[in-house]
């Protein structure tokens, strides 16, 4: 189970960040319905087209990022919609990129990964965030009577 940011702070693994005095970073987020983008869709010359640019801090939580995605994606606002977050970063040994899942949140529900921060997952400025959105099904099947 992943530790949340309060536990990591209490252990001294994350320092408190003063958002009033610290300049935010540009976070490039790529959202996709149903699944993550393939890692080969990321290259120096080409990135997935559905980019969301957000200014935030390294202590931003996955719950905060979910809220930002929901602001621009009306379909993702439904209660029960799942958000799977992954970092995408350069592979220093082989070239190309590596994708690493960092947590899952659900709209309208509390979860163990809500408080996970970018910093706690070793996010570096310049890394990308890939979000797989699993839209909640609102329509119910008619019963075959």
From TrEMBL:
Matches recorded under InterPro entries: SAP18, SAP18_sf
One annotated GO molecular function: transcription corepressor activity
The keyword Protease belongs to this UniProt entry's keyword annotation: no
Superkingdom assignment: Eukaryota
Residues spanning the membrane: none
UniProt keyword terms in alphabetical order: Repressor, Transcription, Transcription regulation
GO-annotated cellular components: nucleus
Record GO biological process: negative regulation of DNA-templated transcription
Family classification: Belongs to the SAP18 family.
The protein's name in its UniProt record: 18 kDa Sin3-associated polypeptide
Origin species: Nematostella vectensis
């Amino acid at each position: 189970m992943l530790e949340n940011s309060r536990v990591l702070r209490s252990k001294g693994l994350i320092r408190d960040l003063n958002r009033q005095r610290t300049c935010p970073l540009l976070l490039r987020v790529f959202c996709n319905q149903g699944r993550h983008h393939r890692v080969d869709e990321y290259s120096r010359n080409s990135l997935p087209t559905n980019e969301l640019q957000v200014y935030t801090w390294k202590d931003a939580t996955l719950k905060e990022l979910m809220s930002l995605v929901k602001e621009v994606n009306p379909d993702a606002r439904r209660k029960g919609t799942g958000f799977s977050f992954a970092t995408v970063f350069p592979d220093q040994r082989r070239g190309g990129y590596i994708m690493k899942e960092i947590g899952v949140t659900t709209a309208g529900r509390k979860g163990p990964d809500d408080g996970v921060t970018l910093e706690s997952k070793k996010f570096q400025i310049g890394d990308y965030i890939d979000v797989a959105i699993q839209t909640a099904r609102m329509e119910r099947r008619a019963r075959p009577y």
